[in-house]
């Protein structure tokens, strides 16, 4: 992280929510530092300022522990995007999203964008194990496969408990419950991801997709905040209206 | 790792607070400037004067002087004290009631206005909204009502302005402007008492743990959160900083920018607000009160009062840098920006950036180092001075004091690893190049350029020559030994030249070309020297080295003279020619340059060149036949010169070539130059027997002389062909060909007279056709011209008549315009415009005109 960047004011805010131990901090770490390391349980929360083109995007990493649950709505206040994270090997973690975390997002912006992310995909899907899996697999023979990976690629080590369809369904329920307009919210297929912070699978896609979706609101907030120019046309319109009001 | 951010300094000792017998504990404290108020559990209010001292060693101490103590008029000790210095009043919350006490006498002030009873907590607004300097705004929580009272404290009274209803009974609060930050039993909330808008922050069980609500700045609060967190929240209920992690049993917190200090049962912890990291932990038992008063953090146990003195920012930063925590040091520096004056901050920031750069440089993190050097506007010489011997001996540079880094030189930094040294040098090359391009090198270009030159020379870098060839400030005295050491003699020569010492430069280069010295970087040095001499304005040098160059290679050597710019030529061509007599080949090239390229129009050069060519041809002729090609090219050159030039002395050359039986074309040309066309054609037709050459000769010789001359030459040639006296008789075939091909040149009538009667018409058909057509054409065009001339004449005639006007009527009654007498006879003259006058009048007038008069005068003056 660069020292100077910390000082700048963020243009827009993103929050990562989810049950403890689903890999929120690892996701953010993978995206910002391009590496995976064992993280400690997050205390309270942390945030990272990402410079994306000319814009500063603050990404808040929250604590998943029940103890800090109360702080969640504060982190969500003013957020333009919420990343709801679950663990693909834990059905409970998906249930928790709806039961515990969804209510926190009430304090987020009205036009907030939701994303549903199933992390730890490397444990269940072979394709998430390598970042460029297919090309390598085809070239290698069956024998070398056995030699190089002790675990066969197509038998998952852990049973996958949450399918992508479940995540899509959750997303649609969220949109429905928030009474968000289906037309303005992005379609479920675009904002439901299965990622792996360990291998980096889909992580960049997740963040970059969200930034792209956020771009209109970034521009909107920027013009709201800093508009040094005075619109003369608006002024004239007001002038014309005035006498009508008086009479 | 930790930073030493604060130092714990005792302020008030146990002995100063209690009489021998009583065992009183500190209940609450207040500090305002140098005034320290302490209320102990025996209901005594103490007033101390707190004077900061600095010992000789730079340590902070406090000298405390007790001014007064007074027993409060109450059974319970004060729970909270707050000074209102503008009013000289101390607001005391004692036994659930607020009272005012004089700050100096500690006497209770009878207060008018509202009585505030049942008060559990109050908070002074440090960002007041009333704008009255002589009152203090306060928010008061009363025990019996679910409400907060907003009131103002004046010198002698307390006035309640507003009652703000809260959902529940608050237990702690802080205030900023219109915002109240309240700790309710189960949650925190923010309430705008002007608009009534409220914002829930987060749940917190105030019964379980004592809530902490602290204003830390404009519209920003610090709150104790579940799990021992310190949460930040602004007035909109948004957290703009990540939380700090305290222990579960946190008792109190204070802010001393950029640190958050927290107190728990055994420790004082210090977190940075900039990166949320724990920076320092101080062991402190029986901690009781921790509060910040206008930037001063005071800490009290039950027995004594301490001051947490922040170490100077620079010390903290230097500590961080010493432990190589560059990022943290920079964060701390930049975080302190608003607390220090701008110019001072800039100085500090620059220095820290430079130091940070050097630390990263030492770790070979070059891109980060470069960025920090750039932002810190580092004096480039600081960096150069790390590299031994790079700075010129004459440089006035001394390293910055105190030093920016701990390295003596590069070898210490690299610990003798040659690869590291190499990488550092590579970095410096890049850095200096950028410095040269920008403004960073202003004021010490000499040092920078010399250092760069040395680095290039050492690394065998190609850019060395670019550096020297462009504008530079390399110091000769310092660079020369260095370049010699690295055998960059060519570059050294360029440097000498740049410093105006061409003689030294040439001497050096000549030694390289001769093989005395070796410079592997330069290949075609001889050509370079020649080019250099050809541009050299110093003629002494040119003459000095011309001999050497010509001896080495005449063809290239002569370029010293031929390539010189014509516009500012200092050399006299005659001198050069005299000088080149020894070098035959060079002389020829030089003359060719003069005559053919520069087209100097002097007979001397032309003759000289022609003679040289002729000699060459004659020389080749006398030698065996294997030089045929050479001969051909030499003859072509000679013929070309003889034809094109008209300045050489023809007789001289003719004399030279007269004897040669082979050089007929040349002789013909020479005769042609003398206008001896008969002789020339004779040679060509009868000796050389080359009709094409003869025709070419005619074309060439008449090229600039017009049609008539050309016709004469062709007739000459025809005459030659038809001459019956010649050996072998007349040459009919050639004559016919000539006539048929060039019919337009000949005068057909003369030709027909010349031609023998026996020739058939068919033979001359093309010629005759041509001649006839030409004749008819001439006749017709002449007629057309005649007709046109006639028409023009007629036209002019008509115009003349038109301008003369109609007939002039004369009568005896008509008067002359000049003498005004009437006409006697019909003779008259007309003035322009047709006015009739007397003949004599007109003659008179003509005599009187100015031109006439002037002419007369000159006549007379000539005579006298």
UniProtKB/TrEMBL annotation, chain A:
Coiled-coil boundaries: none
PANTHER family in the cross-refs: DRAB5-RELATED (PTHR24073)
Gene expressing this chain: RAB20
Protein name: RAB20, member RAS oncogene family
PROSITE patterns per the UniProt record, alphabetical: RAB
Family: Belongs to the small GTPase superfamily. Rab family.
Gene3D superfamilies tied to this protein: P-loop containing nucleotide triphosphate hydrolases
GO MF annotations, alphabetized: GTP binding; GTPase activity
The entry's keywords: GTP-binding, Nucleotide-binding
From TrEMBL, chain B:
Signal peptide: none
Ranges of the CHCR repeats in the UniProt entry: 554-726
Cited InterPro entries: Clathrin_H-chain/VPS_repeat, CNH_dom, Vam6/VPS39/TRAP1, VPS39/TGF_beta_rcpt-assoc_1, VPS39/TGFA1_Znf
Annotated ranges, domain CNH: 23-297
GO BP terms in the entry: autophagy; endosomal vesicle fusion; intracellular protein transport
Organism superkingdom: Eukaryota
A GO cellular component annotation in the UniProt record: cytoplasm
PROSITE patterns for the chain: CHCR, CNH
PANTHER family per the UniProt record, alphabetical: CNH DOMAIN CONTAINING, TRANSFORMING GROWTH FACTOR-BETA RECEPTOR-ASSOCIATED PROTEIN 1 HOMOLOG
The protein's name in its UniProt record: CNH domain-containing protein
Protein's organism: Electrophorus electricus
Gene behind this protein: TGFBRAP1
């Amino acid at each position: 992280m660069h020292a100077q960047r910390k000082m700048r004011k963020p243009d827009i805010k993103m929050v990562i929510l989810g049950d403890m131990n689903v890999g929120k901090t690892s996701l953010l770490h993978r995206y910002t530092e391009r590496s995976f390391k064992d993280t400690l349980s997050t205390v309270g929360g942390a945030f990272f300022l990402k410079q994306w083109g000319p814009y500063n995007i603050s990404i808040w990493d929250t604590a998943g522990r029940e103890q800090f649950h109360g702080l969640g709505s504060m982190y969500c206040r003013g957020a333009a995007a919420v990343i709801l994270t679950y663990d693909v090997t834990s059905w409970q973690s998906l249930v928790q999203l709806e039961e515990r975390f969804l209510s926190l997002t009430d304090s987020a912006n009205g036009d907030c964008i939701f994303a549903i992310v199933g992390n730890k995909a490397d444990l269940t899907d072979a394709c998430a194990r390598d970042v460029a899996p297919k090309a390598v697999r085809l070239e290698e023979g069956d024998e070398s496969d056995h030699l190089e990976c002790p675990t066969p690629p197509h038998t998952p080590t852990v049973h996958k408990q949450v399918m992508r369809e479940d995540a899509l369904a959750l997303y649609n329920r969220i949109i429905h419950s928030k009474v968000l307009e289906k037309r303005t919210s992005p379609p479920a297929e675009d904002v439901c991801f299965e990622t792996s912070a360990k291998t980096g699978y889909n992580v960049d896609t997740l963040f970059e997709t969200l930034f792209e979706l956020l771009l209109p609101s970034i521009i909107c907030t920027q013009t709201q905040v800093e508009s040094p120019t005075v619109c003369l046309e608006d002024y004239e319109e007001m002038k014309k209206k005035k006498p009508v009001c008086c009479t | 790792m930790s930073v030493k951010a604060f130092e714990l300094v005792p302020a008030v000792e146990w002995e100063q607070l209690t009489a021998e017998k009583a065992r009183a504990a500190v209940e609450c404290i207040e500090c305002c400037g140098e005034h320290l108020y302490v209320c102990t559990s025996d209901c005594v209010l103490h007033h101390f004067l707190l004077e900061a001292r600095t010992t000789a060693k730079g340590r902070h101490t406090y000298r405390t002087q007790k001014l007064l103590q007074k027993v409060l008029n109450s059974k319970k000790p004060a729970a909270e004290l707050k000074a209102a210095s503008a009013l000289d009043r101390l607001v005391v919350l004692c036994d659930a009631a607020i009272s005012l006490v004089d700050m100096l006498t500690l006497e209770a002030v009878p207060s008018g206005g509202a009585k505030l009873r049942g008060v559990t907590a109050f908070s002074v607004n440090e960002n007041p909204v009333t704008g009255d300097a002589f009152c203090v705004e306060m928010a008061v929580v009363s025990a019996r009502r679910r409400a907060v009272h907003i009131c103002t404290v004046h010198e002698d009274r307390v006035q309640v302005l507003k009652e703000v209803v809260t959902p529940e009974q608050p237990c702690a609060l802080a205030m900023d402007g219109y915002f109240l930050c309240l700790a309710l039993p189960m949650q925190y909330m923010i309430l705008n008492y002007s608009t009534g808008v409220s914002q829930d922050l987060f749940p917190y069980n105030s019964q379980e743990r004592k809530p902490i609500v602290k204003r830390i700045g404009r519209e920003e609060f610090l709150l104790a959160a579940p799990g021992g967190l310190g949460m930040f929240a602004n007035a909109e209920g948004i957290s703009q900083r990540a939380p700090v992690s305290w222990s579960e049993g946190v008792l109190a917190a204070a802010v001393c920018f950029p640190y958050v200090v927290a107190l728990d049962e055994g420790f004082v912890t210090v977190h940075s607000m900039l990166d949320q990291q724990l920076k320092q932990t101080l062991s402190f038992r029986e901690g009781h009160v921790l509060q910040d008063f206008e930037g001063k953090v005071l800490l009290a146990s039950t027995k004594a009062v301490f001051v947490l003195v922040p170490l100077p920012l620079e010390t903290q930063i230097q500590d961080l840098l010493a432990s190589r925590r560059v990022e943290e040091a920079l964060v701390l520096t930049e975080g302190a920006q608003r607390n220090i004056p701008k110019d001072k901050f800039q100085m500090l920031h620059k220095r820290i950036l430079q130091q940070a750069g050097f630390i990263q440089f030492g770790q070979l993190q070059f891109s980060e180092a470069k960025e920090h050097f750039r932002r810190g506007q580092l004096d480039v010489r600081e960096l150069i001075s790390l590299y031994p011997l790079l700075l010129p001996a004459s440089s006035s540079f001394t390293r910055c004091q105190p030093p920016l880094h701990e390295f003596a030189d590069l070898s210490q930094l690299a610990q003798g690893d040659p690869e590291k040294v190499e990488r550092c040098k590579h970095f410096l090359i890049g850095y200096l190049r950028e410095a040269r391009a920008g403004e960073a090198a202003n004021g010490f270009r000499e040092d920078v350029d010399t250092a760069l030159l040395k680095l290039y020379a050492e690394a065998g870098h190609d850019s060395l020559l670019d550096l020297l060839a462009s504008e530079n400030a390399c110091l000769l005295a310092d660079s020369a030994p260095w370049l010699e050491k690295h055998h960059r003699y060519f570059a050294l020569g360029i440097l000498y030249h740049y410093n105006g010492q061409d003689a030294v430069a040439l001497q050096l280069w000549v030694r390289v070309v001769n093989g005395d010295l070796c410079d592997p970087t330069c290949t075609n040095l001889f050509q370079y020297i020649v080019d250099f001499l050809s541009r050299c304005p110093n003629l002494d040098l040119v003459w000095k080295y011309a001999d050497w160059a010509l001896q080495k290679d005449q063809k290239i050597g002569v370029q010293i003279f031929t390539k010189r710019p014509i516009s500012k030529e200092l050399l006299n061509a005659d001198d050069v020619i005299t000088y080149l007599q020894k070098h035959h080949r060079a002389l020829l090239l030089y003359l060719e340059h003069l005559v053919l390229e520069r087209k100097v129009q002097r007979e001397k050069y032309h003759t000289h060149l022609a003679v040289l060519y002729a000699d060459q041809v004659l020389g080749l002729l006398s030698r065996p036949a294997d030089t045929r090609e050479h001969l051909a090219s030499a003859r072509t050159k000679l013929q070309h010169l003889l034809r094109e030039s008209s300045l050489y002395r023809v007789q001289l050359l003719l004399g030279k070539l007269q004897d040669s039986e082979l050089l007929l074309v040349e002789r013909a040309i020479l005769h042609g130059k003398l206008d001896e066309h008969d002789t020339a054609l004779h040679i060509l037709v009868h000796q050389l027997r080359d009709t094409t050459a003869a025709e070419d000769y005619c074309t060439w010789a008449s090229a600039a002389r017009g049609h008539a001359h050309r016709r004469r030459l062709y007739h000459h040639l025809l005459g030659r062909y038809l001459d019956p006296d010649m050996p072998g008789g007349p040459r009919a075939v050639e004559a016919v060909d000539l006539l048929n091909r060039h019919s337009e040149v000949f005068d057909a009538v003369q030709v027909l007279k010349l031609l023998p009667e026996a020739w058939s018409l068919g033979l001359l058909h093309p010629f005759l056709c041509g001649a006839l057509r030409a004749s008819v054409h001439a006749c017709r065009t002449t007629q057309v011209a005649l007709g046109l001339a006639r028409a023009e004449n007629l036209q002019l005639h008509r115009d003349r008549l038109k301008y003369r006007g109609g007939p002039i009527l004369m009568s005896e009654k008509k008067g002359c315009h000049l003498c005004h007498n009437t006409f006697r006879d019909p003779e008259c003259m007309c003035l322009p415009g047709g006015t009739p006058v007397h003949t004599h009048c007109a003659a008179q007038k003509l005599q009187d005109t100015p031109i006439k008069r002037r002419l007369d005068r000159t006549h007379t003056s000539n005579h006298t």
